[in-house]
Amino acid sequence: MIEIQSITKDMLGVVAVKDIQPETLIRVFNPQFSNERNKYTIQIGTKHMMDDFGQYLNHSCNPNSEIRGGGSTPCLYAIKYIKVGAEVTYDYNTTEEILSEPFYCNCHNKLIKGRYI
User: Fold this and answer.
1) CATH class of residue range 2-112
2) With bands split at pLDDT 50, 70 and 90, how would you rate the model's confidence at 20?
3) Domain locations in the chain?
């Protein structure tokens, strides 16, 4: 359903390899949890998750997926139709309290820094 591909010359991302309908479960994460955040982790509750695909999910202010569930089995769901070849994205501000490396997004040149900064 998804694979990691080059998005630009210098960036990898998660791309749909078949059409994905809204509300489709895209991935059940296989997380390794830590108390430390970095640019590759996704915050789930108070913990920070590393996952083989999760670390390549890029930000969008207009995402086509979202992370649901907490505890030991967070999942990625489509929230819009995702056409084959499209990048799968989510809004970092929906999971992160504070980003380890805030950045200006390519969507609106908005500073993405987390919910609590």
Assistant:
1) mainly beta
2) very high
3) 2-112
